[in-house]
Write a structure and sequence with these properties.
Keywords: ATP-binding, Nucleotide-binding, Transport
GO molecular function: ATP binding; ATP hydrolysis activity
Distance between the termini: 40 Å
Pfam families: ABC_tran (PF00005)
InterPro entries: AAA+_ATPase, ABC_transporter-like_ATP-bd, ABC_transporter_ATP-binding, P-loop_NTPase
Largest sheet: 6 strands, mixed
Shape: globular
Number of helices: 13
CATH superfamily of the largest domain: P-loop containing nucleotide triphosphate hydrolases
CATH architecture of the largest domain: 3-Layer(aba) Sandwich
Structural class: alpha/beta
Oligomer: single chain
Number of domains: 2
Order of helices and strands: EHEEHEHEHHHHEHEHEEHEHEEHEH
Protein name: ABC transporter related protein
Length: about 325
């Protein structure tokens, strides 16, 4: 069976206006502007089969959102081939729109002055769905997502972020799409709402055999949902395959985080490479499982150290190591 989504050797370059400081340069820019060209994605290739969830992973600016915009048809590729359900997504035919959905966590389709159920009725007209059937679907989805019927009737602007995101999903899934693009659907949400959304997506995929592309900065989303992952680095493929395969390729890594004084860090550095973490005076060491006892001995000899936390080879640690290797 042919994959539902095909991306082959796709590249996209943006032309960006360079704004220079000063009044004179501002006036000059009215007559002659300077531009630079930024390659957002370079020669990326992947496929998504029926009933598969592909996770797009990358640092900010790696090309994840550009990739979502390309495969969903919002922007056109400069090079390469993209096919979704056998069609060019950029042409956005009616048949394509009736089978595909896009959810962007930071962009809302909900009218803040209407209720979710009012928006459902509006979308029912757009997709030629019987309004009674649309309302039944919306209530069923709301129940799965843990959203009450009272919440469906409330003005959207009065809802919490999590409730609004659940409303976005109800609208986006109302026409029962078989291909879905999700760009950061759980961003900024609490743990319970994230879990409710993940469970809903798993059940929907199973029920409708849907093909899904998901971007998320939350590793739990990726590990819990994705059959395959595609890691982007500076617009290019860094890894494509299963999480299990990635873990088998990388050396078994452990990590210990701790807070320490400068003197303690200097002494520990005689035995292990100490790296700075994001917080002030927070550091970490990477090491193999065989070195665990040695690491514990070195750290326990230090009085000026606190908040020691050991971590196993979680996916985020493995991906972090992959990126560090790519930068060398």
């Amino acid at each position: 069976m042919q994959p539902k989504i095909i991306v082959k050797n796709v590249s996209k370059t943006y032309r960006v206006y360079i704004k220079e400081n000063g009044v004179v340069n501002t006036v000059k820019s009215f007559f002659k502007r300077r531009y630079e060209y930024i390659e957002a994605v370079k020669g990326i290739s992947f496929t998504v089969n029926q009933g598969e969830i592909l996770g797009l992973i990358g640092l900010n600016g790696a090309g994840k959102t550009t990739t979502i915009k390309l495969v969903s048809g919002i922007i056109k590729a400069d090079k390469g081939i993209i096919r979704v359900l056998g069609k060019d997504p950029f042409l956005r035919s009616k048949e394509y729109r009736n089978k595909v959905s896009l959810v962007m966590g930071q962009r809302s389709q909900l009218d803040p002055d209407l209720s979710i159920i009012d928006s459902v009725k509006l979308f029912a007209s757009i997709y030629s769905i019987d309004k009674r059937e649309a309302i039944l679907r919306a209530k069923s989805m709301a129940e799965e997502l843990g959203l009450s019927e009272i919440d469906l009737q409330k003005q959207v602007r009065t809802l919490s972020l999590g409730q609004r995101m659940k409303g976005e999903l109800i609208l986006s899934f109302l026409h029962l799409p078989v291909v879905i693009f999700l760009d950061e659907p759980t961003i900024g949400l609490d743990f319970f709402t994230q879990r409710a959304i993940r469970n809903y997506l798993k059940n929907y995929k199973k029920k409708y055999n849907a093909s899904i592309i998901l971007t998320s900065h939350y590793i739990t989303d990726i590990e819990d949902l994705c059959d395959n992952i595609y890691i982007l680095h500076k617009g290019q493929e860094l890894y494509y395959g299963t999480i299990e395969k990635l873990k088998s390729m990388m050396p078994n890594i452990r990590k210990v985080r701790f807070n320490a004084s400068n003197g303690a860090v200097e002494r520990i550095s005689k035995y292990y490479k100490v790296e700075e973490a994001s917080e002030e005076q927070e550091y970490f060491i990477r090491f193999s499982p065989e070195e665990t006892i040695n690491v514990m001995r070195v750290l326990s000899n230090e009085a000026e150290i606190s908040n020691i936390n050991f971590h196993d080879d979680n996916l985020d640690i493995i991906i972090e190591s992959l990126y560090k290797g790519a930068e060398k």
